[in-house]
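Bug report

Summary: structure tokens for Site-specific recombinase XerD differ between web form and batch submission.
Environment: batch mode, default settings.
Steps: 1) Submit the sequence below via batch. 2) Compare with the web form result.

Sequence submitted:
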Amino acid sequence: MTSPMANPNGSIFKRCGCRDPETRRQLGNSCPKLRRRNGIWSSHHGTWHYRVDLPPSADGRRQEARRSGLPSHDAASDEIRNIQDLVAIPGSDSHGVGQIRDLILDAIKAGDPLPDPAVVKERYRRRADLNPQITVGEWLYTWLAGRRTIRRSTREGYEVSIRMHLVPFIGDIRLDQLTIGHLDDMFDRIDIRNETIRRIRAGKDPERREMFKGQKVTSDAYKQRIRATLRAALNHGIRIGLITFNPAAWVELPSGKRPKALLWTKERVARWRATGEVPSPVMVWTPAQTGAFLDLAEARNDRYYELYHLIAHRGLRRGEACGVHWTDLDLDEGSLTVRWQITQYGADTEMGAPKSDAGDRQISLDADTVTVLRHRRARQNAHRLSHGAHWADNGLVFTEPNGSPLIPDEVTKHFKELVAAAGLPPIRLHDLRHGAATLALAAGADIKAVQELLGHASIAITADTYAHILPELAREIAEGVARLIPRQKSARTIKE
């Protein structure tokens, strides 16, 4: 019997599970069926094995790598070449040699593929862990715990993406084995879930609809946020040497563009009254509709009237309006400095800086808004006197009657109730801010001025959201002007 095939640092041979009929011992590589009559290995019997020497252990004992059950001689040769490349990485570094040896033996013992020598070489160069067994889920939570300088709202957004989407779909995959294919599968499964939710909502089975009550379709924009979370976490993994490739940077997704703002024209209002259809997630009132809302709030002496007026005229975010301090106002000069915002986190609120650096800004106030804010001061002084020692003096402009800060979600809830009472087409409280921007553009402000008014970090955000609504608003204003000019019907109009 010919001896196993020679190799510079090991041997490749075949074995099978056949047993001697008398002793019942396995024949191993001595089974006659393993070779043809000419001594060549049979292609129909047995599987390929290899054995290769590794650097000895620290105490000088011989170390050997063995793998069995390989499908071909070439597969065995490839693994031996991988082992040779891995062993060559640390050179004469005895500690590195031991790490590489353990890396090879651990992979073979676990039945895993051998690590990629190029990846291991890069990790070795960075002095990073050569055998990171951490899963995607473990890494995401480790990464999130280390983000100490991000805003609370940003952290909570990351946490939701990780808990609701990334961990359920790819959390069990080893971090260094994550591929673009895994991410494609994840987003395909999200799309399938979206279709299931849409189909059940449109169906006639009340029990199934109840099962999916409260579950939301994952929008294209939110898919982009999921990917952004993963991409940030993987980029940090690359920086510290855990991985060398970021598949999240290459996965293809729909753009997730922000919805365009639409004006509540007469035709759209009529359609909404007939069918309940709201044509866009972002809807903007006409000047007349905004005025009708503010008239109702003022007539009712509504507790939030002045706040709604400020948002409608100057476009503050909800949290920014709730966080305005008297020291931020100069009513004599007609100016407001936006320095604070109250952010809602579930049942909790937190006073903090504006959403971005651009959010920290100074804006001018019109005379009507100054008058409204002076009225607000008088109303607050009356509340302070009525509550006496129980008044909470925190310097805020908009407060509850006892002086405590407003709860932003309550402001939003009350806004919806007022809109319904006014019989106006629905908008979100945030859309009142959109309306202020649109009115500023219609009044002649350029896009850059509106960007600064709103505190947008990029002028592209302002242009993308508002620019295309101007023709509609211009037509609405033009029709309003025409209605104000009294005319007698011409003979041509009468004839028609």
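Above is the batch result. After comparison, the two runs are identical; trailing whitespace caused the diff. Residues 1-8, 491-496 have pLDDT under 50 and may be disordered. Residues 262-483 form a domain with the hpI Integrase; Chain A fold (CATH 1.10.443.10).
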